[in-house]
Design goal:
It is built from 11 helices and 18 strands. Helices cover 28% and strands 27% of the residues.
C-alpha cells in the first residue's frame, strides 16, 4: 500500500509498504480521506513525541471497513469515521468513559500509525458508521473537530439558557459556536483578531467582537457589553491558545461562571489576576481544561450533524493528494491555515 512516512523532523516521504496486520478485535479500514491542519504541521516539526520513527501521521480517518471480527462492527464496505483515541480499556479513567486522559492512552496518527496511507487498523470499538452518501470532506470533520468540541461543551455543563463567549474562531472555535447553539445556548458572542474569521461565523452567533489591539481588560468589557450581560458570561470558552485570550476569558466570566480552556498555549503559562482574592476567589470562578474526546462524543456529534444542526462546509479548506501533504504542511508552517482544515484525498474518487 502507499503510505506517507515521517522519517524525521520535517522529513516525510512516500513509500510502498505492506498492509498492516489486523490485531484481534481491530478492524482493517481502507482510508478514503483524512485532514491536515496546524496540529499536523507541529507533528511533522517534531514538537510531539511519535514514540518512534518511521510513523504514519493522520489522526482524522474516514474510510471503509474491509475486515473485522465483532458482529457489532459495521459490515465490510460500510463507511465509517474512526476515533483515534485508544484507551487501555481497564483503568479507572477508561471505566468511567474518560479514555482521552487514560495514563496508558495511545493515539492513531501520533504514537500509532494513522490514516496517511491506503489502509489503517482501528479498534472495532472506535469505528462509527456514516451514511453512504455523506460528503467525505464533511465527514472528516466528524473525526476530530466535532467530537473535541462536543467533549468540551459536555465538560462545561453548558446547556439551555447559557450566555457564552467564544474566543478564537478557527476550526474549533467555529464548531464550538454551532455545537453550543445546538445544545441550547441562547446568546453567543465570538471574539477574534481576524475579520474574515468573524465574518464567517456571523450566521451562528448573536454578535462578534474584533479584539485586535485591545488589552484583556478592554476586551472583556467589550465582550460583556456585546453579550448584554454586564456581570459577565456564564461560560467563557478559550479556543485560540493565546495567553492574552486566556486572560481575557478570566475577566469575561461572571461570578460563579466557568472558564473553559481548550486552546493550546505552547511553553510555560500562568494565570494572572490583579487581585487574586477579589478577581478569582471571591468570584468563585470554575476554571477547567478539556482535552481530546471520547467515544460518547462521537455519538452526540454525529447525531447533531445528521440532524442538520451543524454546517461543516465553512471549515473545509483545499483538497490535497497524499503525495502533496509535505508541500501543504510547508505552506501551513509559512502562512497558517486560515482557520480551515485541508482535506487529504487518499481515495475519495
Amino acid at each position: 500500500m502507499r503510505a506517507l512516512l515521517m522519517l524525521g523532523e520535517n522529513q516525510l516521504e512516500m513509500a510502498d509498504i505492506a498492509v498492516p496486520e489486523r490485531p484481534e478485535n481491530w478492524a482493517l479500514v481502507r482510508v478514503r480521506a483524512s485532514a491536515l491542519g496546524l496540529f499536523h504541521e507541529q507533528m511533522a516539526a517534531g514538537m510531539i513525541d511519535t514514540a518512534g520513527l518511521p510513523r504514519i501521521l493522520g489522526h482524522e480517518i474516514v474510510g471503509e471497513i474491509v475486515e473485522a471480527d465483532s458482529p457489532a462492527t459495521p459490515p465490510a464496505g460500510s463507511l465509517v469515521v474512526g476515533d483515534a483515541v485508544i484507551g487501555c480499556g481497564v483503568c479507572e479513567w477508561c471505566v468511567r468513559g474518560s479514555e482521552s486522559i487514560c495514563p496508558w492512552m495511545r493515539h492513531l496518527g501520533i504514537d500509532v500509525d494513522g490514516g496517511f496511507a491506503d489502509y489503517v487498523v482501528v479498534p472495532e470499538s472506535n469505528v462509527f458508521p456514516l451514511s453512504a452518501d455523506v460528503r467525505l470532506d464533511e465527514a472528516v470533520m466528524l473525526s476530530s473537530a466535532v467530537p473535541a468540541t462536543v467533549h468540551g461543551m459536555r465538560r462545561s455543563g453548558a446547556g439551555a439558557g447559557t450566555r457564552m463567549v467564544v474566543s478564537g474562531i478557527g476550526s474549533i472555535g467555529f464548531t464550538v459556536c454551532q455545537v453550543a447553539r445546538a445544545m441550547g445556548a441562547t446568546t453567543i458572542v465570538a471574539a477574534d483578531v481576524v475579520a474574515d474569521h468573524l465574518a464567517a461565523v456571523e450566521p451562528w452567533v448573536d454578535a462578534t467582537v474584533d479584539v485586535s489591539g485591545m488589552s484583556p481588560t478592554d476586551s472583556a468589557e467589550a465582550l460583556r457589553e456585546a453579550l448584554g450581560a454586564p456581570h459577565g458570561a456564564d461560560l467563557a470558552f478559550e479556543a485560540s491558545g493565546h495567553p492574552a485570550s486566556v486572560d481575557t476569558m478570566l475577566r469575561t466570566a461572571r461570578p460563579d461562571g466557568t472558564v473553559l480552556l481548550m486552546g493550546i498555549v505552547h511553553g510555560g503559562a500562568s494565570l494572572n489576576f490583579d487581585d487574586f482574592l477579589f478577581d478569582f476567589i471571591k468570584r468563585e470562578l470554575t476554571v477547567m481544561a478539556t482535552f481530546g474526546y471520547t467515544r460518547a462524543d462521537f455519538l452526540l456529534g454525529n447525531a447533531l450533524y445528521e440532524s442538520g444542526r451543524l454546517d461543516l462546509r465553512p471549515l473545509i479548506g483545499p483538497t490535497v493528494s497524499l503525495e502533496g501533504v509535505p508541500d501543504a504542511l510547508a505552506a501551513i508552517a509559512a502562512a497558517g491555515t486560515g482557520g480551515k482544515r485541508q482535506i487529504v484525498d487518499v481515495a475519495m474518487g
